[in-house]
Design brief:
It is a single chain. The protein has 307 residues and is mainly α. The protein has 2 domains: 15-76 and 244-301, no CATH class; 79-230, MetI-like fold. Helices cover 64% and strands 0% of the residues. It has 14 helices and no strands. The termini are far apart.
Length: 307
């Protein structure tokens, strides 16, 4: 008697589910294209024929590809130092913000903390009220932070929203590891560094990407507190160069090796300046963000619903 093999049965899918899936994928595909296209548009216009780009003829496919724009933009005054300032403030500011927010969030979960609820409310209320621009400037000037690199770091160290996120994350996790460490005689700092930080990778990565993007994109603090050109950030230079695109195009066109940029394809225009500088500023953070993406959703969702 031959052994009968069971054939896998095909699960029937309702017509409504098929239509829903098609519509769902279509909507998200369109949304993805709408999100990606602005960056794609910047890139193709920064490497295309400058004359065609200035006339709005480059929309989907690059024409006359060249890299002269990037060579010329890198010659602009202050780009090198601004890049170092932006990288420095992003790295140092992110580390300080994440560690401070994580520690304060951890402290607010400790049952022995004196007046814990009152202190926590003082932190939360700062999300809704602030002194204003002039008092903030006077505060920075009083503490001698204006025209210093630390004006980018110190005011951003404490972020109430990050503290709330860390506190919520820790409250949704079991305290058994902390209690075991306390029984072994571990101090608060030991528990924080040896127990909390290693087990909180998702939320720490989430806080890190928020802090890094915020630091990299910031330019108003430079505008308000810094007059030393050596401390200008890359975003502030972008803001300045976009406003001065017409004059910068003339300077780049008439300086250096004129013969190499004499033709219309590579001659600098206000549009080429705007596009190229925008790509230089945006591209680094576009590469960093996907590195933290796998932790991002997990860090947001864990602790979002308490049961």
């Amino acid at each position: 008697m031959a052994n009968s093999e069971k054939k896998p049965t095909m699960k029937k899918v309702a017509a409504g589910d098929v239509i829903f899936n098609i519509l769902n994928y279509t909507v998200f595909l369109i949304y993805t294209i709408l999100c990606i296209y602005p960056f794609y548009y910047l890139i193709i216009n920064s490497i295309s024929n400058n004359d065609m780009s200035a006339n709005g003829l480059v929309n989907f496919i690059p024409h006359g590809i060249h890299l002269q724009n990037y060579k010329d933009v890198m010659k602009l005054k202050g780009i090198g130092s601004a890049m170092l300032v932006s990288v420095g403030r992003t790295v140092i500011g992110t580390v300080c913000t994440v560690l401070a927010s994580a520690f304060m969030g951890f402290i607010f979960t400790q049952p022995k903390l004196w007046k814990k609820k009152l202190l926590y409310r003082f932190v939360v209320i700062t999300m809704y009220f602030n002194a204003g621009l002039i008092p903030m400037f006077l505060t920075m000037k009083t503490f001698h932070l204006t025209n210093t690199f630390w004006v980018y770091i110190i005011p951003a160290i404490i972020n109430p929203f990050d503290i709330i996120m860390m506190k919520t994350y820790l409250e949704s996790s079991p305290r058994s590891l902390e209690e075991a460490a306390e029984v072994d005689g571990a101090s608060i700092l030991t528990i924080f560094t040896r127990v909390i930080l290693p087990t909180s990778t998702p939320i720490l990565a989430t806080l890190a990407i928020w802090a890094a993007v915020g630091q990299w994109n910031a330019f108003q603090d430079t505008l308000l507190y810094v007059t030393d050109q050596n401390l200008y950030s890359l975003q502030y230079l972008l803001y300045t160069y976009i406003n001065q695109a017409n004059s910068l195009a003339s300077v780049l066109k008439n300086s250096g090796n004129v013969m190499s940029i004499a033709n219309l394809a590579t001659r600098q225009t206000p549009t080429s300046i705007r596009m190229t500088v925008s790509v230089v500023v945006v591209l680094p953070i576009l590469f960093i963000y996907p590195m933290f993406q796998k932790y991002f959703v997990k860090g947001i969702m864990i602790g979002a619903v308490k049961g």
